[in-house]
Recover the amino acids of this structure.
């Protein structure tokens, strides 16, 4: 039975999984690397660090799982989306890559909207508005601020596609990751010539486009030698981290949605047809399922809000947890569970790092509203969890408004590991929620894509059906659901009430 490698080039490190054809995980390894912030709001990495980590993690997995080169049937690639790698005519990196969380491109976003003929026309061309995280603004920033480097650039690659280039010598990408560049005609799954022309960008800057299951090249002599693998091992398109993670969660058919409560929160819905939010609140991207699409909402500080609460306000709980040899979150969750649903009128807005969905407002700020002498730390902890979950519901409600069916919500991330938070999500979403047998994220998803792309399965839908199953189900409690349905409109109104105040606060800084 063949084994497939899934390599995920993340922001903090690269993770490699060895996955047997039947879905069994044989080995896992992660190699970390630094992130650089040369100026406030800037975020960069050295692409060579991704390559070195990929080589190391593959070697570690092969050794730990006692695998031979001949065991490997194919490789799938995933990675942080939106980043930009600029290469010269010799294939060398010109400057550090600008990452998804780099915020230097506000002026370029405005420039793109102007050149496109306005926000509405931009969304019509590429299904999304211009956001600072996307790739296109980064390219314009290079042209506007580092003209010599721009003039040397002959190829622009996404993070995982730079690793692909080092593996195969091929300049290639695939539709799910390319959707996040803001330069893809998402409807027709090809580079948008009309937008490229308006931005005066030559199409030769961008790699050949594939579907996520397609074989994009094979291991070169040099790459095979570096990793201890066989020359000619196929490398498939793979996917951007969110689409790849959705594959790993089995989000490959209509009606199945994922809600991932990690540091950030992501709601991801499969769509058989292109469905675009005309206001641009949800992203519409190509899915890693051949010929399909997805809509996605992102909450910037979901589980990150509870992490902040733990770090800043729970030193007693951290100390007690150390003595008891338990996770501090267990003690915090116990306190939260002691408070009633709705936290007796206390609301938390989880905008600690601004917000993306549904407001795209970098000025938004975290807030408690409704504090009284009645409230204690348990109320505050519960309200933080409720606020993050209300923020996730925002994306679900927009998806419902777009007539996207939501029949099953699959949970993952830290919010899925806590039975208390699973119950809260069921109550706030007003829908049953489930967990599945595998939670290894993007690396698992692209290993399945590699299995499908090299013939082990007919397609990735068949691969997911064979390897992924539901293991728990949590249904909404009627009383809590009623409480949250009454509280949710109040939560929504609080942002509208404070929007101008958030901007005024930012102006003071």
């Amino acid at each position: 039975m063949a084994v497939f490698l899934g390599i995920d080039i993340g922001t903090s490190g690269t993770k490699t999984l060895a996955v047997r054809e039947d879905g069994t995980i044989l080995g896992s390894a992660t190699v970390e690397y630094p992130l650089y912030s040369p100026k406030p709001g800037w975020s960069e990495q050295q692409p060579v660090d991704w390559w070195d980590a990929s080589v190391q993690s593959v070697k570690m997995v092969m050794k730990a799982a006692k695998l031979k080169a001949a065991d490997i049937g194919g490789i799938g690639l995933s990675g942080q989306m939106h980043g930009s790698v600029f290469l010269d005519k010799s294939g060398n990196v010109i400057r550090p890559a600008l990452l998804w969380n780099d915020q230097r491109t506000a002026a370029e976003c405005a420039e793109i909207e102007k050149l496109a003929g306005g926000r509405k026309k931009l969304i019509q061309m590429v299904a999304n508005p211009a956001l600072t995280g996307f790739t296109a603004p980064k390219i314009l920033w290079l042209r506007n601020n580092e003209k010599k480097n721009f003039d040397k650039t002959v190829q622009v690659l996404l993070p995982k596609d730079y690793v692909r280039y080092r593996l195969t010598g091929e300049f290639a990408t695939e539709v799910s990751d390319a959707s996040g560049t803001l330069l893809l005609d998402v409807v027709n799954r090809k580079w948008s010539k009309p937008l490229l022309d308006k931005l005066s960008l030559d199409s030769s800057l961008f790699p050949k486009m594939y579907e996520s299951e397609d074989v994009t090249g094979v291991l070169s002599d040099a790459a095979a030698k570096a990793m201890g693998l066989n020359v000619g091992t196929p490398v498939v398109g793979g996917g951007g981290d969110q689409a790849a993670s959705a594959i790993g969660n089995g989000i490959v058919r209509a009606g199945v949605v994922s809600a991932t409560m990690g540091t950030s929160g992501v709601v991801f819905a499969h769509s058989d047809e292109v469905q675009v939010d005309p206001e641009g609140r949800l992203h519409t991207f190509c899915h890693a399922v051949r010929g399909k699409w997805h809509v996605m909402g992102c909450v910037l500080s979901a589980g990150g809000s509870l992490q902040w609460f733990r770090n800043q306000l729970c030193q007693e709980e951290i100390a007690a947890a150390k003595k008891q040899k338990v996770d501090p979150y267990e003690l915090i969750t116990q306190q939260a569970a002691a408070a009633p649903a709705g936290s007796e009128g206390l609301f938390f807005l989880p905008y600690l790092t601004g917000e993306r969905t549904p407001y795209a407002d970098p000025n938004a700020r975290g807030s408690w509203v409704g504090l009284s002498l009645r409230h204690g730390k348990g109320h505050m902890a519960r309200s933080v969890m409720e606020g993050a979950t209300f923020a996730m519901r925002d994306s679900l409600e927009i998806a419902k408004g777009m007539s996207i069916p939501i029949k099953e919500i699959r949970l993952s991330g830290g919010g899925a590991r806590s039975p208390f938070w699973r119950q809260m999500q069921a109550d706030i979403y007003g829908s049953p929620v489930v967990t599945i047998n595998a939670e290894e994220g993007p690396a698992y998803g692209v290993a399945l894509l590699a299995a499908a792309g090299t013939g082990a399965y007919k397609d990735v839908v068949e691969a997911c059906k064979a390897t992924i199953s539901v293991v728990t189900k949590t249904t909404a409690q009627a009383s809590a659901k009623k409480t949250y349905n009454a509280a949710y409109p109040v939560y929504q109104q609080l942002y509208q009430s404070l929007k101008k105040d958030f901007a005024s606060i930012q102006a003071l800084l």
User: Anything to note?
Assistant: The radius of gyration is 22 Å.
